[in-house]
Design goal:
Strand order of the largest sheet: 1-2-5
Oligomer: single chain
Number of helices: 7
Number of strands: 5
Order of helices and strands: HHEEEEHHHHHE
Radius of gyration: 15 Å
Structural class: alpha+beta
Largest sheet: 3 strands, mixed
Helix content: 10-25%
């Protein structure tokens, strides 16, 4: 499956000089590295706020491309899907994986070398072993009360 994220015609290295809140919609979308980690179901400890990622993926995640199979209309199928936006990143960055471009830039950190904007190749996220390609379990195959059995200890 081809990569659906259009990174053509963007300002060179825009992520290094433009704040998240000043990026246009194409630049914002291009920040997604296509790893699929944000589509993993998470468990949050109510007392500590600690977030644990599981191998259980949203029903819309394409395990091969690591992208949403219904991105434009995902809220129709998964109303609780969180839409990342420049104005809300400060509230949701804590549950994004540490490798996520949105989180990294929000925290003032650089993008990783394997990020498609840096490497110029949308496959580097997969060849670097960062994506969830091939190791997720669709949420409809696991009862929610069993998600604890699928917690990932190290998501880097």
């Amino acid at each position: 499956m081809s990569n659906k994220i259009d990174r053509s015609g963007l300002r060179p290295n825009f992520w290094e000089s433009i704040p998240l809140t000043k990026m246009n919609s194409r630049e914002w979308e291009a920040l997604c590295d296509g790893c699929g980690k944000c589509c993993l179901n998470k468990l949050e400890d109510e007392d500590t706020g600690e977030v644990a990622f599981t191998r259980v993926a949203c029903r819309l995640l394409d395990d091969d491309s690591c992208q949403c199979g219904q991105y434009e209309i995902r809220k129709q199928f998964v109303p609780e899907c969180v839409s990342l936006k420049p104005e809300t990143i400060k509230d949701v960055a804590y549950w994004l994986p540490a490798t996520c471009a949105y989180r990294l830039l929000h925290e003032g950190k650089p993008l990783n070398d394997w990020h498609p904007l840096v490497s110029g190749d949308p496959q580097t996220v997969h060849t670097a072993g960062i994506s969830v390609r091939g190791w997720t379990i669709p949420e409809f195959e696991v009862a929610e009360e069993d998600w604890e059995d699928y917690i990932i200890e190290d998501l880097s």
